[in-house]
Amino acid sequence: MTGADRAGPCPGQRVEWPDRKRFAFSVFDDTDGDAIWNTQPVYRLLTELGLRTTKSCWVRQPAPGEAALCPGHTTEDPEYRDYLLGLQGLGFEIGLHNVSSASSTREQVRRGLEDFVRQFGHPPAVFANHTGTRDSLYWGGERLTGLRRVLYKALTLFRNRGHFVGHVEGSEHFWGDLCRNQVRYVRNFTFRELDTLAVCPWMPYHDPSRPYVPAWFASCDGHDVERFVAALSESNQDALEAGGGCCIMYTHFASGFFADGRLHAEFERLMRRLSRKSGWFVPVGRLLDHLAIRRGVAEIPSTERARLEWKWLGQKLLMGGTT
Fold it and tell me: Which helix (H) or strand (E) holds 222?
């Protein structure tokens, strides 16, 4: 779908959700620090409650001498791969968080995408950059435009200048064309607000200045269990339902959701409360497909993108933490 398919969202227009549901909710779980023991209890709860979400993975174990940026299992471990296949069989979506926790060359990414298809039966519909890997696409300051890019680079002391080159032709880490041909949706800006669609009404959108990504989506900042439960407060849940909105929560289920042999009590309580509402609880890819089919994927206007960039930059630099 192209910009010709949609002129843009109509102000105040509510999205119609399937089965006459009043709102939509999903989660994109980054795989950092992931193991079976610390995430399986979370997915058991989601399964029990009838919620289906997206779990990302890595398919390549860093080779000796490569700098892994954080711990976490990969699908090279047969037991872990079977765990993910079991989740897929239950209706959860498996996405990609780069092919490895270490920086990958184009050839390693190409083989990793082939491995993903062989293991899960299809290319990854949904992708999120793993912070720090050189093969990340349009990351760091490249997420921003013009003055906002300059400001971000200056405020971060130019630490990542020239580091993220997955979209740069000629780099050994370039794989933008592979992303364009195999991935449907890529996560970009993350915000504090629970109603992601209210903050980013154009999603999924295409950005012609970043052509290797077919469509971008935003998310709500639930980085760890503390931020997750803060975002999913009772009042925020009620407002999401009343507004007919949509939340795509970004999180790491390995970050404190299961500790000392039990699930975080407030997380479990809020998820049980949410599940009793009239929500459409589906994986991220299916949710975005619904929006794309209903409204198309348009080219985001520069004014709207500037608004998103300023809002993200302000939340990141003034309040900290949004990814």
Answer: strand 216-222
